[in-house]
Specification:
Strand content: under 5%
Distance between the termini: 65 Å
Order of helices and strands: HHHH
Number of domains: 1
Number of helices: 4
Number of strands: 0
Radius of gyration: 19 Å
Length: 65
C-alpha cells in the first residue's frame, strides 16, 4: 500500500466519525480537532449571513443605550 492510499483511508475513516483510540490518548487534555469540532465549524460556516447579522444587531439593540 502506498502512502497516499494510507492518507486517503485515514481521511475517509475520520470523515465517517471514527477516531483511533491511540491517537485520542496522546494528549492529556484531549484532542481539539475532532469530528464533532468540524461538524460545529461546518454549521457555523453554513449559517446564512443575514441570520448572523440580525442576531448580532438584535444583541446590540438590547443593551447599552
Amino acid at each position: 500500500m502506498e502512502y497516499r492510499d494510507v492518507v486517503r483511508q485515514s481521511i475517509k475513516t475520520f470523515m465517517e466519525g471514527t477516531l483511533p483510540e491511540q491517537t485520542a490518548s496522546l494528549k492529556e487534555e484531549g484532542l481539539k480537532y475532532t469530528p464533532e469540532f468540524f461538524d460545529e465549524l461546518e454549521a457555523d460556516l453554513l449559517e446564512p449571513k443575514d441570520k448572523k447579522g440580525k442576531k448580532d444587531k438584535k444583541e446590540d439593540d438590547d443593551g447599552d443605550s
